[in-house]
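Session log. Operator J.P. requested a structure for one protein chain; no other inputs attached. Running the standard single-chain path with C-alpha coordinate output.
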Amino acid sequence: MSYKVHPLDSSLKEEHPTIIVGKHIILKLVDRPEDRRLLEEQLIKDFLNTKDLAHDEVQGEIRRLIVLDTKLEILTSRTSYFEFLSAMTDEKIDAAAVFRDKLTESLKTTAPQMALAKIADYLEESLTQLKEIDIKTYSEAFRKMHDVVPKKIMELALKRIKKLSKEALLIGKSLRKRNKKIDIIQPVVLPLCPHCKDILLKDAVISGTTICRVCKKKITPRSVDYLSLNRMSPRILDLYEKNIWFEEYMAKILRRLGWENIWTHNYVLGASGVRHEVDVLGIKGSRICLAECKTGKVRRADAFNFWTKAFDISSHINLFASLGEIPEPETRQFLEGNPSIVLLENVGKLHKEEILEKLKSSLLGL
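Structure written below.
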Protein backbone atom coordinates (compact mmCIF):
# COMPACT_ATOMS: atom_id res chain seq x y z
CA MET A 1 0.00 0.00 0.00
CA SER A 2 1.44 3.36 -0.99
CA TYR A 3 0.68 6.54 0.90
CA LYS A 4 2.08 10.04 1.32
CA VAL A 5 2.87 11.96 4.48
CA HIS A 6 2.31 15.73 4.53
CA PRO A 7 3.71 17.04 7.86
CA LEU A 8 1.94 20.19 9.07
CA ASP A 9 4.67 21.13 11.55
CA SER A 10 7.96 19.85 12.99
CA SER A 11 6.37 17.64 15.70
CA LEU A 12 6.55 14.49 13.56
CA LYS A 13 10.31 14.85 13.21
CA GLU A 14 10.90 15.84 16.82
CA GLU A 15 8.95 12.95 18.34
CA HIS A 16 10.20 10.15 16.06
CA PRO A 17 6.81 8.41 16.19
CA THR A 18 5.69 5.05 14.84
CA ILE A 19 2.73 5.28 12.46
CA ILE A 20 0.42 2.25 12.22
CA VAL A 21 -1.71 2.32 9.09
CA GLY A 22 -4.67 0.00 8.36
CA LYS A 23 -7.77 0.03 6.19
CA HIS A 24 -9.87 1.86 8.75
CA ILE A 25 -7.24 2.97 11.27
CA ILE A 26 -4.21 5.21 11.59
CA LEU A 27 -2.34 5.32 14.90
CA LYS A 28 0.54 7.51 15.96
CA LEU A 29 2.75 6.03 18.72
CA VAL A 30 5.22 8.24 20.57
CA ASP A 31 7.94 6.56 22.63
CA ARG A 32 8.87 7.46 26.23
CA PRO A 33 12.68 7.83 25.92
CA GLU A 34 13.51 7.69 29.64
CA ASP A 35 11.66 4.41 30.09
CA ARG A 36 13.23 3.02 26.94
CA ARG A 37 16.76 3.84 28.11
CA LEU A 38 16.10 2.13 31.44
CA LEU A 39 14.75 -1.00 29.75
CA GLU A 40 17.78 -1.21 27.45
CA GLU A 41 20.18 -1.65 30.39
CA GLN A 42 21.50 -5.21 30.66
CA LEU A 43 20.77 -5.41 34.41
CA ILE A 44 17.10 -4.60 33.75
CA LYS A 45 16.85 -7.04 30.84
CA ASP A 46 18.26 -9.81 33.04
CA PHE A 47 15.96 -8.91 35.92
CA LEU A 48 12.85 -9.00 33.73
CA ASN A 49 13.74 -12.58 32.78
CA THR A 50 13.30 -13.71 36.39
CA LYS A 51 11.12 -16.83 36.47
CA ASP A 52 7.53 -16.08 37.50
CA LEU A 53 8.42 -12.46 38.22
CA ALA A 54 4.78 -11.48 38.81
CA HIS A 55 4.05 -14.28 41.28
CA ASP A 56 3.20 -13.22 44.83
CA GLU A 57 6.18 -15.12 46.25
CA VAL A 58 8.64 -13.15 44.14
CA GLN A 59 6.84 -9.84 44.47
CA GLY A 60 6.56 -10.28 48.24
CA GLU A 61 10.35 -10.51 48.49
CA ILE A 62 10.87 -7.51 46.23
CA ARG A 63 8.32 -5.39 48.12
CA ARG A 64 10.08 -6.28 51.37
CA LEU A 65 13.39 -5.24 49.81
CA ILE A 66 11.90 -1.87 48.89
CA VAL A 67 10.72 -1.39 52.49
CA LEU A 68 14.16 -2.34 53.83
CA ASP A 69 15.90 -0.01 51.39
CA THR A 70 13.62 2.87 52.35
CA LYS A 71 14.38 2.34 56.05
CA LEU A 72 18.12 2.12 55.36
CA GLU A 73 17.97 5.38 53.41
CA ILE A 74 16.17 7.11 56.30
CA LEU A 75 18.51 5.72 58.96
CA THR A 76 21.66 6.68 57.05
CA SER A 77 20.56 10.11 55.79
CA ARG A 78 18.24 11.10 58.69
CA THR A 79 16.64 14.04 56.92
CA SER A 80 13.61 13.74 59.22
CA TYR A 81 13.98 12.96 62.91
CA PHE A 82 10.58 11.31 63.27
CA GLU A 83 11.06 9.22 60.14
CA PHE A 84 14.37 8.21 61.69
CA LEU A 85 12.60 7.06 64.84
CA SER A 86 9.95 5.23 62.78
CA ALA A 87 12.67 3.39 60.85
CA MET A 88 14.01 2.10 64.17
CA THR A 89 10.96 -0.14 64.39
CA ASP A 90 8.22 -1.54 62.16
CA GLU A 91 5.57 0.67 63.78
CA LYS A 92 4.57 4.14 62.67
CA ILE A 93 5.38 7.02 65.00
CA ASP A 94 2.50 9.40 65.69
CA ALA A 95 4.48 12.55 64.92
CA ALA A 96 1.57 14.82 65.87
CA ALA A 97 1.52 13.27 69.32
CA VAL A 98 5.26 13.73 69.64
CA PHE A 99 4.87 17.41 68.77
CA ARG A 100 1.98 17.80 71.20
CA ASP A 101 3.13 15.83 74.24
CA LYS A 102 6.28 15.26 76.19
CA LEU A 103 8.70 13.48 73.86
CA THR A 104 9.61 10.41 75.90
CA GLU A 105 6.03 9.76 77.03
CA SER A 106 4.83 9.93 73.42
CA LEU A 107 7.40 7.41 72.29
CA LYS A 108 6.42 4.99 75.03
CA THR A 109 2.69 5.25 74.34
CA THR A 110 2.58 5.47 70.53
CA ALA A 111 5.12 2.75 69.74
CA PRO A 112 5.96 0.78 72.88
CA GLN A 113 8.53 -1.52 71.31
CA MET A 114 11.84 -2.34 72.96
CA ALA A 115 13.98 -0.16 70.69
CA LEU A 116 11.78 2.90 71.06
CA ALA A 117 11.38 2.38 74.78
CA LYS A 118 15.15 2.49 75.06
CA ILE A 119 15.28 5.60 72.89
CA ALA A 120 12.73 7.25 75.15
CA ASP A 121 14.87 6.48 78.20
CA TYR A 122 18.00 7.79 76.52
CA LEU A 123 16.29 11.01 75.48
CA GLU A 124 15.44 11.88 79.07
CA GLU A 125 18.89 13.35 79.44
CA SER A 126 18.27 15.62 76.43
CA LEU A 127 14.78 16.88 77.30
CA THR A 128 16.02 19.79 79.34
CA GLN A 129 17.77 21.12 76.24
CA LEU A 130 14.64 20.65 74.11
CA LYS A 131 12.02 22.31 76.33
CA GLU A 132 12.50 25.76 74.85
CA ILE A 133 12.58 24.60 71.21
CA ASP A 134 9.52 25.47 69.13
CA ILE A 135 9.31 22.59 66.65
CA LYS A 136 6.95 23.08 63.71
CA THR A 137 8.24 20.77 60.97
CA TYR A 138 9.89 17.34 60.75
CA SER A 139 13.07 18.69 59.16
CA GLU A 140 13.31 21.49 61.70
CA ALA A 141 12.87 18.96 64.49
CA PHE A 142 15.77 16.90 63.24
CA ARG A 143 18.07 19.89 62.71
CA LYS A 144 17.45 21.19 66.22
CA MET A 145 17.51 17.84 67.96
CA HIS A 146 20.42 16.26 66.13
CA ASP A 147 23.10 17.75 68.34
CA VAL A 148 21.46 16.53 71.55
CA VAL A 149 20.76 12.94 70.49
CA PRO A 150 22.79 10.74 72.86
CA LYS A 151 25.49 8.38 71.58
CA LYS A 152 23.47 5.37 72.79
CA ILE A 153 20.73 6.11 70.26
CA MET A 154 23.28 6.17 67.46
CA GLU A 155 24.52 2.79 68.64
CA LEU A 156 20.96 1.44 68.48
CA ALA A 157 20.60 2.89 64.98
CA LEU A 158 23.75 1.12 63.82
CA LYS A 159 22.45 -2.19 65.18
CA ARG A 160 19.16 -1.61 63.33
CA ILE A 161 21.01 -0.77 60.10
CA LYS A 162 23.09 -3.95 60.31
CA LYS A 163 19.98 -6.05 60.98
CA LEU A 164 18.07 -4.58 58.01
CA SER A 165 21.14 -4.91 55.80
CA LYS A 166 21.51 -8.59 56.70
CA GLU A 167 17.85 -9.26 55.89
CA ALA A 168 18.26 -7.52 52.52
CA LEU A 169 21.25 -9.73 51.71
CA LEU A 170 19.27 -12.91 52.53
CA ILE A 171 16.41 -11.82 50.25
CA GLY A 172 18.92 -11.06 47.51
CA LYS A 173 20.33 -14.59 47.80
CA SER A 174 16.82 -16.04 47.66
CA LEU A 175 16.06 -14.12 44.44
CA ARG A 176 19.32 -15.29 42.87
CA LYS A 177 18.02 -18.86 43.14
CA ARG A 178 15.32 -17.85 40.67
CA ASN A 179 17.64 -15.87 38.41
CA LYS A 180 21.40 -16.41 38.67
CA LYS A 181 22.15 -13.48 36.35
CA ILE A 182 20.83 -10.75 38.62
CA ASP A 183 22.50 -8.99 41.53
CA ILE A 184 19.57 -7.10 43.00
CA ILE A 185 21.68 -6.23 46.06
CA GLN A 186 24.66 -3.87 45.87
CA PRO A 187 27.21 -3.22 48.64
CA VAL A 188 27.50 0.34 49.95
CA VAL A 189 30.20 1.72 52.27
CA LEU A 190 29.54 4.75 54.48
CA PRO A 191 32.08 6.69 56.58
CA LEU A 192 31.60 6.73 60.37
CA CYS A 193 32.93 9.05 63.03
CA PRO A 194 35.46 6.95 65.01
CA HIS A 195 34.44 8.69 68.25
CA CYS A 196 30.61 8.77 68.38
CA LYS A 197 29.93 6.35 65.47
CA ASP A 198 27.63 8.87 63.79
CA ILE A 199 27.22 8.34 60.05
CA LEU A 200 28.94 11.12 58.15
CA LEU A 201 27.44 12.62 55.03
CA LYS A 202 26.94 9.89 52.44
CA ASP A 203 29.01 11.69 49.83
CA ALA A 204 31.69 12.77 52.29
CA VAL A 205 35.28 12.30 51.12
CA ILE A 206 37.61 12.23 54.10
CA SER A 207 40.66 13.65 52.31
CA GLY A 208 41.79 15.84 55.19
CA THR A 209 41.02 16.61 58.80
CA THR A 210 37.32 17.31 59.35
CA ILE A 211 35.04 17.93 62.35
CA CYS A 212 32.18 15.59 63.29
CA ARG A 213 28.87 17.47 63.20
CA VAL A 214 27.67 15.63 66.35
CA CYS A 215 30.56 15.16 68.79
CA LYS A 216 32.64 18.03 67.31
CA LYS A 217 35.80 15.94 67.45
CA LYS A 218 38.43 15.80 64.72
CA ILE A 219 38.37 13.03 62.10
CA THR A 220 41.37 12.20 59.92
CA PRO A 221 41.54 9.90 56.88
CA ARG A 222 43.46 7.36 58.95
CA SER A 223 41.06 7.40 61.91
CA VAL A 224 37.72 7.27 60.08
CA ASP A 225 35.64 4.08 60.45
CA TYR A 226 33.41 2.57 57.76
CA LEU A 227 30.03 0.86 57.73
CA SER A 228 29.24 -1.75 55.06
CA LEU A 229 25.61 -2.37 54.21
CA ASN A 230 23.50 -3.93 51.46
CA ARG A 231 21.18 -1.76 49.39
CA MET A 232 18.73 -2.57 46.61
CA SER A 233 20.03 -1.79 43.12
CA PRO A 234 18.94 1.80 42.35
CA ARG A 235 18.13 0.91 38.73
CA ILE A 236 15.78 -1.92 39.72
CA LEU A 237 14.29 0.44 42.30
CA ASP A 238 13.71 2.94 39.46
CA LEU A 239 11.94 0.20 37.50
CA TYR A 240 9.49 -0.26 40.38
CA GLU A 241 9.04 3.44 41.05
CA LYS A 242 8.08 3.90 37.39
CA ASN A 243 5.79 0.84 37.78
CA ILE A 244 6.65 -0.54 34.33
CA TRP A 245 7.94 -4.02 35.16
CA PHE A 246 4.46 -5.60 34.99
CA GLU A 247 3.87 -4.14 31.54
CA GLU A 248 7.07 -5.77 30.28
CA TYR A 249 6.04 -9.05 31.90
CA MET A 250 2.69 -9.06 30.08
CA ALA A 251 4.35 -8.01 26.82
CA LYS A 252 6.54 -11.14 26.97
CA ILE A 253 3.44 -13.29 27.43
CA LEU A 254 1.71 -11.66 24.44
CA ARG A 255 4.76 -12.41 22.30
CA ARG A 256 4.46 -16.07 23.30
CA LEU A 257 0.87 -15.94 22.01
CA GLY A 258 1.99 -14.72 18.58
CA TRP A 259 1.72 -10.97 19.03
CA GLU A 260 5.14 -10.32 17.55
CA ASN A 261 4.94 -6.57 17.04
CA ILE A 262 4.77 -5.14 20.56
CA TRP A 263 5.20 -1.62 21.89
CA THR A 264 5.31 -0.77 25.59
CA HIS A 265 5.20 2.51 27.53
CA ASN A 266 4.02 4.67 24.63
CA TYR A 267 1.66 7.54 24.07
CA VAL A 268 -0.96 6.90 21.38
CA LEU A 269 -2.99 9.58 19.65
CA GLY A 270 -6.64 8.52 19.56
CA ALA A 271 -9.28 9.43 16.98
CA SER A 272 -10.44 12.26 19.26
CA GLY A 273 -6.98 13.84 19.20
CA VAL A 274 -6.43 12.97 22.87
CA ARG A 275 -3.00 11.57 23.71
CA HIS A 276 -3.38 8.34 25.70
CA GLU A 277 -0.74 6.69 27.87
CA VAL A 278 -0.63 3.04 26.78
CA ASP A 279 0.95 0.18 28.75
CA VAL A 280 1.17 -2.37 25.93
CA LEU A 281 0.06 -2.30 22.28
CA GLY A 282 0.48 -5.31 20.01
CA ILE A 283 -0.27 -6.32 16.44
CA LYS A 284 -1.05 -9.79 15.07
CA GLY A 285 -1.99 -9.81 11.41
CA SER A 286 -4.42 -6.95 10.94
CA ARG A 287 -5.61 -6.92 14.55
CA ILE A 288 -4.55 -4.52 17.29
CA CYS A 289 -4.42 -5.43 20.97
CA LEU A 290 -4.39 -2.87 23.77
CA ALA A 291 -3.36 -3.99 27.26
CA GLU A 292 -3.78 -2.24 30.61
CA CYS A 293 -1.57 -3.60 33.42
CA LYS A 294 -2.51 -2.76 37.02
CA THR A 295 -0.28 -3.59 39.99
CA GLY A 296 -2.31 -1.70 42.60
CA LYS A 297 -5.93 -1.66 43.67
CA VAL A 298 -8.30 -1.45 40.70
CA ARG A 299 -10.92 1.27 40.98
CA ARG A 300 -14.14 1.53 39.01
CA ALA A 301 -12.77 4.56 37.17
CA ASP A 302 -9.79 2.48 35.94
CA ALA A 303 -12.10 0.12 34.06
CA PHE A 304 -14.18 2.90 32.47
CA ASN A 305 -11.08 4.92 31.53
CA PHE A 306 -9.59 1.83 29.89
CA TRP A 307 -12.69 1.24 27.82
CA THR A 308 -12.79 4.91 26.78
CA LYS A 309 -9.13 4.65 25.74
CA ALA A 310 -9.77 1.43 23.79
CA PHE A 311 -12.78 2.95 22.02
CA ASP A 312 -10.82 6.07 21.04
CA ILE A 313 -7.88 4.02 19.73
CA SER A 314 -10.24 1.54 17.98
CA SER A 315 -8.28 -1.51 19.13
CA HIS A 316 -9.82 -4.86 18.25
CA ILE A 317 -8.93 -6.83 21.39
CA ASN A 318 -8.28 -5.39 24.84
CA LEU A 319 -6.57 -7.07 27.77
CA PHE A 320 -7.16 -5.81 31.31
CA ALA A 321 -4.55 -7.52 33.53
CA SER A 322 -4.56 -7.03 37.30
CA LEU A 323 -1.88 -8.33 39.64
CA GLY A 324 -4.48 -8.73 42.38
CA GLU A 325 -8.21 -9.32 42.64
CA ILE A 326 -10.70 -6.71 41.45
CA PRO A 327 -12.51 -5.71 44.66
CA GLU A 328 -15.76 -4.35 43.21
CA PRO A 329 -18.19 -6.89 41.65
CA GLU A 330 -19.69 -4.17 39.43
CA THR A 331 -16.29 -3.39 37.94
CA ARG A 332 -15.64 -7.07 37.23
CA GLN A 333 -19.08 -7.46 35.65
CA PHE A 334 -18.46 -4.45 33.41
CA LEU A 335 -15.15 -5.88 32.16
CA GLU A 336 -16.44 -9.45 31.77
CA GLY A 337 -19.58 -8.28 30.00
CA ASN A 338 -17.67 -6.48 27.24
CA PRO A 339 -17.05 -8.92 24.34
CA SER A 340 -13.86 -7.17 23.20
CA ILE A 341 -12.21 -7.20 26.66
CA VAL A 342 -10.22 -10.12 28.06
CA LEU A 343 -10.10 -9.90 31.85
CA LEU A 344 -7.14 -11.42 33.65
CA GLU A 345 -7.08 -10.86 37.41
CA ASN A 346 -5.08 -12.37 40.27
CA VAL A 347 -2.00 -12.67 38.07
CA GLY A 348 0.07 -12.82 41.26
CA LYS A 349 -1.50 -16.18 42.11
CA LEU A 350 -0.54 -17.71 38.75
CA HIS A 351 2.67 -19.07 37.29
CA LYS A 352 3.63 -17.92 33.80
CA GLU A 353 2.54 -21.15 32.11
CA GLU A 354 -0.85 -20.95 33.84
CA ILE A 355 -1.32 -17.41 32.50
CA LEU A 356 -0.48 -18.60 28.99
CA GLU A 357 -3.04 -21.41 29.20
CA LYS A 358 -5.73 -19.00 30.36
CA LEU A 359 -5.04 -16.55 27.53
CA LYS A 360 -4.70 -19.21 24.81
CA SER A 361 -8.41 -19.98 25.14
CA SER A 362 -9.34 -16.29 24.85
CA LEU A 363 -9.44 -13.90 21.91
CA LEU A 364 -5.73 -13.27 22.42
CA GLY A 365 -4.89 -16.88 21.55
CA LEU A 366 -6.69 -16.90 18.18
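Operator note: Confidence is low (pLDDT under 50) at residues 125-133, 135-139.
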